[in-house]
Write a structure and sequence with these properties.
CATH topology of the largest domain: Hypothetical protein af1432
Number of domains: 6
CATH class of the largest domain: Mainly Alpha
Strand order of the largest sheet: 2-1-5-4-3
Largest sheet: 5 strands, antiparallel
CATH superfamily of the largest domain: Hypothetical protein af1432
Strand content: 15-25%
CATH architecture of the largest domain: Orthogonal Bundle
Helix content: 40-55%
Number of helices: 25
């Protein structure tokens, strides 16, 4: 029995040794980390667990297993241990270097050698978790992407699509999944699609994989629309999968069509423009030229593309243009330049506007566009104008007259050298900015302002004034000429002034001499009139009164002062011929016989004969000769009719009759003014001039004319 028991014990020990050996073999070589702990203290662990946490095995023996758990997971793990939980759970482990990672824990209570222990398996699941998160992120990206995304098997069957693809093509995911990808493309692409897949599977050479192509897609309702397709592939579970990203480019295509239409429109405009239009790239080569520019070079636009300006023009001209173009590239600002270009037929002046062409973001300059206009005619005109200006400037500076330019306020903008010398100025700067009234005596300022106002209104003005000069106060005559722009607006005033001091002095002398002559003439007329009055007192008073009335009628008719003066002289002398009439006939109180009347009638001719050789400035002799003529030809001495009688004689005739009838005569008493006016009124138009009679009647009836008084 004892031998049997001993034999059994030996057999049991041997079996136990075998089991322990197997346990340790599994324990030490397990891929997962395993540790044995009692009441939290680590009794043993395998190499996998030590390596997982970055320790040596001996460093962990005897330590609390919770030291390998992060603070955020310690309480949860302790609770699982206390509850002797035998289900797997997740926690955060802490490595020796302090880094944390995700772990999965599975523990089980055991009794080893009579000791209650807990054997715990630990697995690093951080990679799995990261993969899960990555897949989740990828799925989130796919589901929220605005582009349509699909997955297709190598046989062309759709494995999945994202929501954007559902919306784009009009299919629900469960409708399209499992259908052939050709469902989403027009039939004309089917053959090429199948051949492309087969070629890729056989050769692994991509047909559209790794690139972007533009084709048309087909919606559920049969509508075709332009798409942009990108493909990639990957292998999984011994099968090949394709992923595709589809973007609806309908809006872009419409925009491209509009851009193309716009480009064609602008190209048409550029080609039809009379200006040269070209585009230069950063390497200073022509990218575009319109026909107008090419024609000047006797070539075609396509032959100019890619060439540098130095290949088309002399080096100095090309260098100047290139410098300007580079300035635009550097500054981003437009500039204008003028150059003379030698073309095959002739040299031309061109004004070129250089403008930067920028990318859509408005920042990077990709090219410079030039617009050149032929300004040869303008340049020739400018040169001619310059020559003309030089000539006129020479004339202005050489003339002795003062030539000035004024602004519209009368302020000097320029004064010629002669003017500067006259007014004692050393340079034109002393004149510029001063008002022209500073060089005009104060009593002429009001007249100056009126003259300037007339010039501003566009009228040429003349103005005489006195001005202080280095030689004293002198007389000047100015002509103010308004200068107008292309629209007819007055923009400045040219004033040309000449010294007229000598002329004014001469005019003053002439005026004084004329006044003396006038005085002499008046004295002579008075003397002649007095000669007749000495023989007949009635004649002297009669002539003075007739002169007063005749002058008033002439003024009433609106005649000039000089004409009125001539009528006054004629009236004062109209009976001068009566000096040849015997005094006894002139003062005879009774009725004259026919012979005596003939003698009286002869006084008109006698007056003419006395006055005809005197050089009066008026028709004095003719007036006194005709003052007894009547419109109907019944007068004397020459029986003249209306058209043959001068107007001065017609006026004198009315005044003579009115005064004679209204005054007392040697042979009768005065008939009164009413009788006299009645006579001329009844016979106007037949014997007497209508206008003269009407004016005479108006003087007495409306103007209170009176023969009394000395003024005539």
């Amino acid at each position: 029995m004892n031998d049997f028991v001993a034999q059994k014990e030996d057999s049991f020990k041997e079996t136990r040794l075998i089991d322990e050996s197997l346990f340790h073999c599994l324990f030490d070589n397990a891929f997962e980390g395993v540790l044995i702990h009692e009441n939290g203290l680590i009794l043993d662990l395998n190499q996998s667990l030590a390596s997982m946490f970055g320790y040596e095995i001996k460093e962990l023996i005897g330590r609390n297993g919770l030291d390998l758990i992060s603070l955020e997971s310690v309480d949860s793990v302790r609770e699982k241990i206390d509850l002797k939980n035998e289900e797997s759970y997740e926690a955060i482990g802490v490595k020796k270097d302090g880094t944390t990672f995700e772990i999965e824990i599975l523990g089980k209570e055991q009794t080893l050698d009579g000791i209650d222990v807990r054997i715990t398996a630990v697995r690093d699941v951080s990679a799995e978790k990261e993969l899960q998160r990555s897949e989740k992120r990828f799925r989130s990206i796919v589901d929220t992407a605005t582009d349509a995304i699909f997955m297709m098997r190598s046989d062309g069957v759709i494995a999945s699509i994202n929501p954007a693809a559902e919306q784009l093509f009009g299919y629900a995911s469960n409708e399209i999944t499992g259908l052939d990808i050709k469902t989403l493309m027009p039939e004309r692409y089917h053959t090429a699609h199948v051949q492309g897949i087969e070629r890729f599977l056989n050769t692994k050479k991509p047909f559209a994989v790794g690139s972007t192509i533009e084709i048309e897609g087909l919606k559920k309702d049969g509508t075709e629309f332009p798409i942009e397709l990108s493909l990639a592939f990957f292998e999984s579970d011994n099968d090949l999968f394709f992923t595709g990203i589809i973007r609806d480019i309908s809006d872009r295509k419409k925009a491209e069509d509009k851009i193309r239409e716009s480009e064609n429109r602008y190209r048409t405009l550029a080609e039809s423009a009379e200006d040269d239009i070209f585009i230069i790239t950063k390497d200073l080569r022509l990218r575009y030229s319109n026909s107008c520019a090419a024609e000047k070079l006797k070539t075609r636009p396509e032959y100019m593309i890619g060439k540098k300006l130095s290949e088309l023009f002399p080096e100095n001209v090309a260098a100047h243009m290139n410098s300007s173009i580079e300035t635009v590239f550097k500054t981003g600002r437009s500039i204008s330049v003028e150059n003379k270009f030698p073309f095959p037929t002739r040299e031309l002046w061109l004004n070129t506007r250089l403008l930067p062409l920028k990318e859509d973001n408005g920042e990077n300059i990709t090219a410079v566009m030039g617009v050149s206009r032929d300004i040869t005619s303008r340049k020739i005109a400018e040169e001619a104008l310059w020559v003309s200006e030089q000539q006129y400037r020479a004339l202005v500076e050489a003339t002795s007259e003062c030539i000035c330019k004024l602004d519209l306020n009368g302020v000097f903008k320029y004064m010629s050298p002669a003017g500067l010398v006259t007014h004692g100025m050393r340079s034109v700067n002393e004149a510029i900015g001063r008002h022209c009234s500073e060089l005009v005596e104060p009593e002429y300022h009001d007249l100056l302002e009126k003259t300037l106002a007339g010039a501003k209104d566009g009228q040429i003005q003349k103005f005489q004034f006195e001005s202080a000069t280095v030689d004293g106060v002198k007389w000047f005559e100015s002509v103010l000429t308004p200068q107008k722009d292309n629209l007819g607006n007055v923009v400045s005033i040219i004033r040309i002034s000449r010294d007229i001091t000598e002329r004014v002095s001469a005019e003053i002398k002439i005026t004084e001499s004329w006044m003396k002559l006038q005085k002499t003439l008046e004295d002579t007329v008075t003397a002649l009139s007095s000669t007749a009055g000495m023989r007949d007192p009635y004649t002297a008073g009669h002539q003075q009164r007739v002169a007063k009335l005749a002058s008033a009628i002439a003024r009433e008719l609106g005649m000039s002062k000089e004409s009125v003066k001539g009528i006054r002289v004629s009236s004062t002398l109209h009976d001068i011929g009566k000096i040849y009439v015997p005094a006894e006939i002139l003062s005879k109180p009774g009725k004259l016989n026919e012979f005596e009347f003939k003698i009286i009638e002869a006084h008109a001719q006698a007056s003419y004969d006395i006055l005809k050789d005197i050089d009066f400035p008026w028709p004095i002799a003719s007036t006194v000769l005709q003052h007894h003529e009547r419109l109907d030809g019944s007068g004397y001495p020459n029986k003249l009719t209306s058209d043959e009688i001068i107007v001065e004689a017609k006026i004198l005739a009315v005044a003579d009759v009115v005064e004679a009838m209204s005054s007392r005569r040697p042979y009768r008493s005065g008939l009164g003014i009413n009788k006299a006016l009645e006579e001329v009124a009844e016979n106007k138009g037949r014997l007497y001039d209508d206008d003269a009679v009407n004016a005479c009647i108006s003087l007495f009836s409306e103007k209170d004319f009176d023969f009394r008084g000395s003024s005539i």
